[in-house]
Amino acid sequence: MLIFFDTLNVYYLPQYVPIIQELKKQGHSVNLVCYHERNEKDVVQQIFNQLDLECLWVNDDSEAETLYLTQKPDWIFFGNKCTYLDSIHQYSKTAQLGHGIGPKPSYYHKSITPMTVRFIEGSLRLAKIKEFYPDDNFVQVGFSKLDPIINHQEPGLDLDKIGLDSNKKTILYAPTFNPSSLECFPDNWPKDFADYNILIKPHSLTQMRDKFKNQQLKLKKWSAFSNVYVASAEDISLLPFMQNADILLSEASSTLFEFSALAKPVIVCNFFKLKWSYRGIFHFRFVKRFGKDNVLYSDIGLHVNKYSELISAIPQQLAHPEQYEANRQKYTDEHVGPTDGNASKRIVEYLENFQSA
Questions:
Q1: pLDDT, greater one: 177 or 62
Q2: Largest separation between any pair of C-alpha atoms in the chain
Q3: How many other CB atoms are found less than 10 A from the CB of residue 234?
Q4: Long-range CB contacts (within 8 A, 24+) of 316-325
Q5: pLDDT at site 66
Q6: pLDDT on residue 279
Q7: According to the model, what pLDDT value does residue 233 have?
Q8: Chain mean position to CA 223
């Protein structure tokens, strides 16, 4: 089979790569399609070279559609909705694969354009999306992104090589770009945690887009501390960081679900900065976008309402990881799905065995 992966944003790659590797192992041909208007080519090309992947570049949706109609792949994977399904369904089957499992309503609404199949992670998510789209085809497989770490194929970071101390406990801070807690952390916060390694993995958009300059300035200040490693734009995958980390801090990132699935404690930062169009009289826009599903995080781990609470919360949670253990398992079953390391295999087997009705 010939399979294309529509890589609208480079941060789709960690979800795609385990499936691509399984496809190649089974002798199938794979191509990635990447967009000039959404990605910095030099950065992305370095990532592709590291992963030994080739990419076809297009300028926009129109060029992508033309490419698919010309190449006629057996399957095309999308990480988001697609507006030209009718035309490409003449020759190709389509699969939708969300790049994250966070609380945003967009997780569900991207399925408004029905593809041949959408692969779903956990049982609760499967039940809910079937309520929205009862006539569409959804298959629960788990979360392919985690396969390498579950299968012990992820070596993690070389802490000594990046200047950290392998004898210390390691904090992972993984803020998303919106809403983000990043600008609510002090410039010198690594000093409060000098006895720990601190890994900081911001969202790719934080590092690549000019409108996040204030966040980028914070990252630069933090990187000057000897106990800190800030991910570069080329560090696209969160897996190496999760492999080394003992505890996770975040506010609204699907990383909270992913890290919990590894049976490690998480702390949810209830403090974050909203962009101006979500503040004051416009707060309803924030509520509309993030919706009531934000309560999904309510008991996944300890919540803190301001930065200063982290100073006691982090050592407390590290000393008592069992406190939210049962909750983490429940979240994993409902939102991440089976953690047997075979999500990618299930996806590939589905493609190979698919027969249209």
A1: 62
A2: 61
A3: 14
A4: 317/247, 317/265, 317/267, 318/169, 318/246, 318/247, 318/265, 321/264, 321/265, 323/265, 324/265, 324/266, 324/299, 324/300, 325/263
A5: 97
A6: 46
A7: 79
A8: 23
Q: Does domain 2-150+341-353 have CATH number 3.40.1260.10?
A: no
Buried b (16+ CB within 10 A) or exposed e, 166-181: eebebbbbbbbbbbbb
Q: What does the block give as tokens for 143?
A: 């979360």
Residue reference for tokens 């000594």: 160
Q: What is the crossing angle of helices 41-51 and 13-25, to 10°?
A: 40
What is the C-alpha separation between 345 and 242, in angstroms, rounded?
22
Q: What angle do CA 175, 215, 234 make, to 5 degrees?
A: 70
pTM, entire model: 0.88
Q: In the predicted model, is pLDDT for residue 42 greater than 80?
A: no
Question: CATH 3.40.50.2000 spans which residues of the chain?
Answer: 2-150+341-353, 170-336
User: How far apart, in whole angstroms, are the C-alpha atoms of residue 121 and residue 124?
Assistant: 9
Gyration radius of the chain's alpha carbons: 20
Burial class (CB in 10 A: 0-12, 13-18, 19+), 226: exposed
CATH class of 170-336: alpha beta
Helices 13-25, 343-353: inter-axial angle, 10-degree rounding = 60
